[in-house]
Amino acid sequence: MPFVSIGGVTLHHRHIEATGTSRPIIFINSLGTDFRIWDDVVARLTGEMPMLVYDKRGHGLSDIGSGVRSIDDHADDLSGLIDHFGFDKVVLYGLSVGGMVAQQLYARRPELVEALILSDTAHKIGTAESWKARIATVERDGIEAIADGIMKVWFTPEFHARRAEDLAGCRNMLTRQALPDYIGTCIAVRDADFTDSARRIAVPTLCVVGDQDGSTPPDLVRSLAELIPGARFEVIRNAAHIPCIEQPDALVSLIRDFVASLPEGKPAHG
Questions:
Q1: d(C-alpha 14, C-alpha 219), whole Å
Q2: pLDDT over 70 (residue 21)
């Protein structure tokens, strides 16, 4: 169980070394999840490229620290992790709020970022009213009160019908998150707007989304791709908000192809 203290916050992480490419890919998980959501992706890519997964502060086994007030708090942790490992260039893969963290890290330290994969995310997610309603509900009744509704946007009806055990496990992961940090991260997403900074992204970027994503629908993710000069946009069929769990083979195929296209990339298995 590797842990590291970044700015006084203990972060749980896993570093998977490889010689396939010289650029590590760092996976940043979504709101209410921990790094176990990447297990199927990491299993398929192990040996091909260096990878780092970690639990955002207040998620999984990581500390809450002083809490979360803005996306900057999560970006501070990510920046510290990159410095801790001595990475000179990285590929950032951010899912949902993780995609916002990736955008913020790029805005602050573009020299560190080789490329971006922005999954099921956007430059602006939700409205002040929708986040206010969610925060009020979980403050009053806990995450349990919204869990069934969240599962409906995280996963397709087919997933609900055929993978009941996996669904139950993901629901447990959500409801067992630390409430203060869940609320803090909701506030951070509510207040974040990367519309202007997205236009200044100048590295290769892949925007990807599940075709049945009910949280950040394909049209919203497409609008992010249209803001970023030269960005590539891909839709994963038969997936909702968390394709890394629902369709890992399709997602891994996109990751391999994208990384191989980078200047420092090499063909998969080659």
A1: 33
A2: no
